[in-house]
Amino acid sequence: MKQLHFLSNSTIFNLHYSQILQQIHKLPQGIVYTLLFTAFFIPTAANAIEITNQIYSPLNHPLGKPLNVRPVREEADRLLRLGRQQYASGSVDKTIESGLQALEIYHSLGDMTAQGLTYDLLAGAYLQLGNLKDAEDAIRRRLGIARDNKDFKNQIFGLNNLATLLLQKGEPKAAGETVQDALVIARNLDDIEGQGLSLSNLSLVYIRLGDYNQAVKLAETALFFRRQTGNVIGEINTLNNLGDAYLMAGDYENTIGAYGTAMRLAKINFYRPDQLRAIDGLVTAHTAVGRYERSLELLEQRLAIAKFLNSPNEELKYFVSSGELYEKIRDYPKARNFYQQALSLAQKLDDIKQEAKLLHILNELKGR
Questions:
Q1: What would the pLDDT profile of 155-177 be if each residue is shown by its tens digit?
Q2: pLDDT of residue 45
Q3: Which residues of 171-193 are buried (b: 16+ CB within 10 A; e: fewer)?
Q4: Residue 176 pLDDT
Q5: Alpha helices in 26-151 (DSSP H)
Q6: 10 Å Cβ neighbour count for 125?
Q7: 14 DSSP assignment
Q8: Region for 58 from its dihedrals, namely left if φ exceeds 0, alpha if ψ lies in -120 to 50, beta otherwise
Q9: Helix (H, G, I), strand (E, B), or coil: what is residue 305?
């Protein structure tokens, strides 16, 4: 990865060495010592590598005796574990708070491996919030660490995370090329986990490209690999991807099967964001085949999870989806009621885009 330089490399020390000596010899001895002291202890401009090396240097006692870093490391490890638990439960803001605290400690300890793991967590959390700028920064830093360490396994993960970001930015072709790079590495290493992850993400790429049959095949193959590793989170994510592919292909029976399995696994393992994603897919599929009562039951489950997570954004999605469902079945009074509740919440959240959309919908429903 190309090193980014944030500060200029040019300093006073770029002057020719002999010129400096000529000037120093002309000065009184006391001033010479003063200049030398100043030269050694006043900070000069530094490039990113120098700054990084300083940050990553292990903590040392002022007298030169190493500090007992074990309690510090244990605290960082605890924060990273906590961040992962918070992410799994849907508390994304808290995930970032814990992750950044852990990252600061790992920086001070010079633990590059742990930093990489923390960047993974932060990238996922930033993506959940739609903060693409900070997500990309975390992903590229993580990928850079993996490349510097010739850590091919984590290069697979870094490339997949970058592909996820590119998909969110609306660049499916670039995302596909990035995932293909990851898949090549995974196949060369005969890495089952890496192949499952890469194939799963590649299925999403083909969904965005409109090739739904290929997306289904890739997701089914990915599921085979993921079930071999016992990675429940990975299996749930791939099942949701498979549900997306079936849904876009209009295969509602298999859509419901894939999302249903994902929802059950996510509920058992308390993976709330994946559970919400599966519920949303199921609502769409059941509504498409006229199973409105089942859709309403699922939406009530969504509301319960949103309240448990204390997430107004997820509650907003509940009100909007409920309004859409009642509008579809032509129960316009209930539709207006849900849209109005959604509008009030959107205004509280200062969601201008959603507010404008809801005002337009409510205006269209007048008189119905």
A1: 998 999 899 899 989 999 999 99
A2: 35
A3: ebebbbebbebbbebbeeeebeb
A4: 97
A5: 29-41, 48-56, 70-88, 92-109, 112-129, 132-148
A6: 26
A7: G
A8: beta
A9: helix
